[in-house]
Write a structure and sequence with these properties.
Length: 351
């Protein structure tokens, strides 16, 4: 699209009130900025939380917000001083926009930036608008060039892959480890690809739906367990105080976390990726088995690593995309993404 055409975007007004609207014209580019003509955007769990519930936890939608932070497109225009990109370049756009100045940025922990402006987030007010739009203004430093063989659909998977690379880092060494993943949505499946790439010896993944488990198996998980059909499916891993060295909890479900405690060996590391609710934990078990419960939040430098690993063919994310719809059918796309019996990752096209 040309830079002067009106930009349409996917705007959430309230829970279940998602509209395709024309935005105010984009401001002229400042030095260091670029305009990106959007090609593909993936619907994330957090987008779904906003759509279904108007937010999660204490983070609530208080004004209309463009959703979306998993995007890739083409450079459409350059601001002054941008020398690392050219018009026509295909890029994945990192939604992470830390200030670079605060103490956490200075320590290399940009995900904890005190002045973060992460796309499509209602954590601060006014909300930070997202990237489900036909065109956006971005800083050049957010744009990561795609290798020639990579599609925009793969580029739009760089963000969730970066989340999982960061989670992998939080877990520590995975070489030779037995890994349990609870939740076979996009994050759980991507975590399995990261764990495998990092040398995990065995990966078992659980979910309550068969569709994502079939995909997880196809992508290399050693064993899948449908815990809705087989509630004691993890029992075989419980003998001698448990089997798994590392657990990635990617469902946000309390029962997934606590239900795995018997299957984790003493000293196991639990990386909690899932969000969205309040958990009650059997603290005595956590203490007695000396579990390490670790949070993991977003990513920063891992975004470039995600683009690099996909570009080199070391992680293939293409099979995760189960449907692609035009952004003008955003409501249909969101409803489909919410149906875990049918969908893993749903993406929208903006071209
Ligand atoms: Zn995401
Ligand atoms: Zn900062």
């Amino acid at each position: 699209m040309s830079s002067t055409a009106p930009t349409r975007a996917v705007v959430l007004h309230a829970a279940k009130d998602l509209r395709v609207e024309t935005l105010a014209p984009l401001a002229a580019l400042k030095p260091g900025e670029v305009r990106v003509a959007m090609e593909v955007g993936g619907i994330c769990g957090s987008d779904l939380h906003y759509y279904q519930d108007g937010g999660f936890g204490v983070i609530r939608l208080k004004q209309p917000m463009v959703l979306g932070h998993e995007v890739a497109g083409r450079i459409d225009a350059l601001g002054a001083g941008v020398t690392t990109l050219a018009v026509g370049d295909r890029v994945a756009v990192s939604p992470s926009r830390p200030c670079g100045m605060c103490k956490y940025c200075q320590q290399g922990a940009q995900q904890h930036c005190l002045d973060m402006r992460f796309y499509g987030s209602a954590m601060r007010f006014p909300h930070i608008q997202g990237a489900f739009a036909q065109a956006i203004t971005a800083d050049a430093r957010q744009c990561h060039m795609l290798a020639p063989g990579l599609t925009a659909a793969e580029g739009a998977m760089a963000e969730p892959l970066a989340v999982c690379l960061h989670a992998g880092r939080r877990a520590g060494p995975l070489l030779g480890r037995r890994v349990l993943i609870t939740g076979a949505g996009p994050i759980g499946v991507l975590a399995s690809l990261v764990a495998r790439r990092a040398g995990a010896a065995e990966i078992v993944i659980t979910d309550v739906a068969d569709t994502p488990l079939v995909l997880a198996k196809k992508l290399g998980c050693d064993q899948t367990i449908n815990v809705a059909k087989q509630p004691d499916g993890l029992q075989e891993f419980a003998k001698d105080k448990g089997s798994f060295d590392v657990m990635f909890e990617a469902s946000g479900n309390e029962r997934a976390l606590t239900g795995a405690f018997d299957a984790l060996r003493p000293g196991a590391i639990i990386v909690q990726l899932g969000i969205g609710s309040t958990f009650t934990l059997p603290i005595n078990t956590l203490v007695a088995k000396e579990f390490e419960l670790r949070g993991t939040f977003r990513f920063h430098e891992e975004f470039a690593l995600a683009v690099q690993l996909m570009g080199a063919g070391l992680i293939d994310v293409k099979p995760l995309v189960t449907a692609t719809l035009p952004f003008t059918s955003a409501v249909e796309a969101f409803e489909l993404a919410a149906d875990k019996t049918k969908s893993v990752k749903v993406q929208m096209t903006f071209g």
